[in-house]
Amino acid sequence: MESDIYQLRDALQKARELELDLVEISPTANPPVCKIMDYKKFLYEQKKKQKEIKAKSAKIVVKEIRLGPNTDDHDFDFKLKHAIKFLQEGAKVKVDVFFKGRSIIYKDKGELILLRFAEALEEYGKVERLPKLEGKRMIMIVAPKK
Q: Taking a C-beta distance cutoff of 8 angstroms, is the pair 137, 99 a contact?
């Protein structure tokens, strides 16, 4: 396509001859910049690009595992296997220790359980957020290793 200056009427005539659309690209320029193109095709390609970008963006899934301050070894191992599976699938794992009633006095036990959990998951993921007490829960987040 050539880039010349045309009167609006001439530009519209040229677009009609080519059976295309006259699209204003930069209305603030002097004179305004227009382009002769198939506008429907242009919109379709824009939509396609947006879909591609959306498909490439990673969707982060967060799986939650809840423990108690007095969780025994069997339950701990069982939940650990689930956490490993989630991390291998590429999901983040939010591990929390929930303190019911007066069990909040065992904060140190809860932290020890979470740190033990993090240590066991060391080869599958890295701790993104260290154990932190929020209300009656102590929360830790583990992200998968790339």
A: yes
Q: How far is CA 128 from CA 22, 93, 122, 141, in A?
A: 53, 10, 12, 5
Q: What is the DSSP string of 76-112?
A: HHHHHHHHHHHHHTT-EEEEEEE--GGGGGGHHHHHH
Instruction: Quote the CA–CA distance of 98 and 89 in Å, as a whole number.
Output: 25
Task: Specify the amino acid at residue 146.
Answer: K
Q: Across the chain, where does the E strand assignment appear?
A: 21-26, 33-37, 62-67, 92-98, 125-134, 137-144
pLDDT value for 1 = 55
- Amino acid 95: pLDDT: 92
Query: What domains are there in the chain, each with its CATH number?
Result: 8-54 (3.10.20.80), 62-144 (3.30.110.10)
How many residues are there in the chain? 146
Q: What is the pTM of this model?
A: 0.58
